[in-house]
Write a structure and sequence with these properties.
The chain is α/β, with parallel strands linked by helices. It contains 20 helices and 19 strands. Strands 9-10-6-11-12-5-13 form a seven-stranded parallel β-sheet, with helices on both faces. Strands 14-19-18-15-17-16 form a six-stranded parallel β-sheet, with helices on both faces. The protein is flat. About 0% of the residues have low confidence.
């Protein structure tokens, strides 16, 4: 028996007055489960354990259906469902408990992968793609004209995309690449494959600043390229790249829309303006969506729906926020995934330092002044726009004013944040690009797409208020030129830096940092709106069960390819309907 109560000393001996007595019987000397209990409801873990054991005993007579094919279990060394349920509730050993957990985690991951793979195969089956000309002359001329060699990763990914574009099904591919890994060249190459087959390419970016920078960069890459034109006296014409954003209005906008519809614009780069009513393409062949996580699923789909009724354009979505491979296979499991895991040679290193305390902060501001004295520029990033009574964190407006009177009073400062209108933002950014400003004090509005090679130093204030991915993206705004760059991460805690700051100081590898982020934050949820901490996976973990995700995905392809409607796997189909609601499935694709 077990006794529960307060032990007191009485006449030299311990005693309990009115203890609670629990007859534990055979529940000692072996592994026992611990369930959630409620004193108010009168439900204890012992009662629940008894009910579960009774239920399992009653199931012995009729047996339990195992919906996973025996061949899959044997191939991957997984125990059957009955053994797993007994092993998770009443294990004979720690090994038996782990084997049971592993099998049930596999079941959970398999259900998710069956939904993702089923959606992927249905998309391929129901959509008619464009068989692009992948052996034309335009792409080789573009690659030969590049002033730098492609990395091995770029060559590999271009090959993967070429195979997709030559096939009968529309491409639906995610391109992951760290800051500076060369995603733009890969995207331009894909759009040129459409152009050389007399189709058009479109690139959609989330902000006007990023769209305009893409327009300048892509135009520079494609300068001098000619495309065949039978209506032209010389048989060809210069390749046309145009910009379409909210700032393109009036006669210019009408001209761009008319030429898009006529097919005389080969590649268009823009923002949400590309998916507005009235935008029509002559023959949209390849769609590229940059920083895809900043668009909703409906917005991403709207651009691909601008293609003709007869065929679906190929879609390449890009992100500079690396995602752990196992998470990518789950969150983006309906897409093929390509990874640029190699940086071009000559990329200047970024040294990251932690500033805690007045002495290091003096060194930090001295570094900014030294960089400006050497003809370079700097960013100062704040987590908020204006001061808050509730949060003691740096605000851009206050820091801008304080620095102008204090540490950086001799320098030319500019302010940039999300509440400024587009004209004010553009004027400030142009002044910074033209070196009329030495230091840009900003919020995270500069996180994506700001490209000023002369900016070589960044200060992030209250860095422990940012996530790893955001800090890594911010840091990528420096180190874009030929001069070695530096990033200072300032925190108010003088004794202990946060694990996020430690990770940024230790590494500039975005994929490594993504794995660290997954460990620190947890995987979040796949099928509801929460984003941080607790997972809605009951047993499986994207961190712990990486090998099981591979196995589950491989098994899902085998099952769906052999039985697309799961008519021969009724048990699996019933479990999917029971355990994954239509709302869960829809959120899985929208998340």
């Amino acid at each position: 028996m077990a006794l529960f109560g307060k032990a007191d000393l009485y006449r030299g001996a311990l005693q309990m007055t009115n203890p609670i007595v629990d007859l534990i019987g055979d529940r000692t000397g072996r592994i026992v489960p611990i369930y959630g209990q409620s004193e108010k409801a009168g439900i204890s873990t012992w009662k629940l354990a008894g009910w579960v054991e009774n239920a399992l005993e009653r199931c012995k007579a009729r047996g339990l259906l195992d919906p996973v094919p025996g061949g899959v279990l044997a191939k991957h060394g997984l125990i059957d469902r009955t053994a797993a349920l007994w092993g998770i509730h009443l294990p004979d050993s720690i090994l038996a408990k782990e084997e049971a957990r592993r099998r049930l985690a596999f079941d959970e991951l398999l259900r998710v992968q069956l939904v993702l793979v089923g959606r992927k195969r249905a998309f391929e089956r129901d959509s008619r793609g464009i068989k692009h000309v992948v052996d034309g002359q335009l792409v080789p001329r573009f690659l030969q004209a590049l002033p730098f060699p492609l990395t091995g990763a770029q060559q590999r990914v271009i090959g993967e995309i070429s195979v997709d574009l030559a096939g009968p099904h529309p491409m639906h591919r995610l391109l992951q690449g760290d800051v500076g890994s060369g995603k733009t060249v890969v995207a331009v190459n894909a759009m040129l494959m459409a152009v050389q087959g007399k189709h058009q390419g479109a690139l959609m970016a989330p902000t006007e600043v990023l769209a305009e920078q893409h327009f300048v960069g892509v135009s520079r890459l494609l300068a001098g390229l000619q495309v065949p034109d039978p209506d032209n006296l010389f048989g060809d014409r210069p390749l046309r790249v145009e910009l379409l954003t909210g700032r393109v209005t009036g006669e210019k906008r009408r001209a761009v829309l008319a030429e898009l519809a006529a097919g005389t614009i080969d590649i268009v780069i823009g923002t949400h303006a590309l998916i507005q009513e009235g935008v029509q393409f002559n023959s949209l062949g390849v769609v590229v969506i940059d920083e895809q996580h900043r668009f909703g699923v409906e917005q991403r789909a709207a651009l691909s729906q601008k293609g003709s009724d007869a065929s679906t354009p190929d879609v390449l979505v890009m992100t500079a926020t690396p995602i752990p491979r196992t998470a990518a296979m789950t969150v983006y499991g309906d897409l093929d995934v390509s990874v640029l895991d190699e940086l071009p040679p000559g990329r200047t290193p970024i040294v990251t330092k932690w500033a805690a305390g007045p002495l290091l902060e003096q060194t930090m501001w001295a570094d900014v002044c030294d960089a400006v004295a050497a003809g370079q520029q700097a960013y100062v990033v704040c987590p908020m726009i204006e001061e808050s009574d509730k949060m003691e964190v740096a605000s851009a407006e206050k820091i801008f004013a304080d620095l102008g009177r204090g540490e950086l009073k001799k320098l030319r400062l500019g302010l940039l944040h999300g509440r400024m209108n587009s004209v004010e933002k553009e004027e400030t950014m142009n002044a910074f690009r033209d070196r009329k400003l030495d230091v840009l004090v900003a919020t995270t509005v500069i996180e994506v797409g700001v490209d000023v090679p002369n900016a070589t130093i960044m200060v992030v204030l209250d860095a422990d208020r940012f996530g790893i991915a955001q800090l890594h993206q911010l840091r990528g705004r420096v180190g874009r030129g030929a001069i070695a760059s530096k990033c200072w991460l300032q925190t108010k805690d003088l004794e202990v830096s946060s694990p996020r700051v430690d990770a940024l100081v230790d590494s500039t590898d975005g994929f490594y940092l993504a794995e660290v982020d997954l460990e620190l934050r947890g995987e979040g949820t796949l099928m509801n709106s929460a984003q941080k901490g607790r997972s809605d996976l009951k047993i499986a973990s994207l961190r712990r069960d990486r090998d099981l995700i591979d196995i589950a995905r491989e098994s899902a392809f085998e099952i769906v390819d052999a039985d697309p409607t799961l008519s021969g796997h009724v048990g699996l189909r019933d479990e999917l309907e029971l355990l994954l609601s239509p709302e869960d499935e829809e959120f899985l694709f929208k998340n």
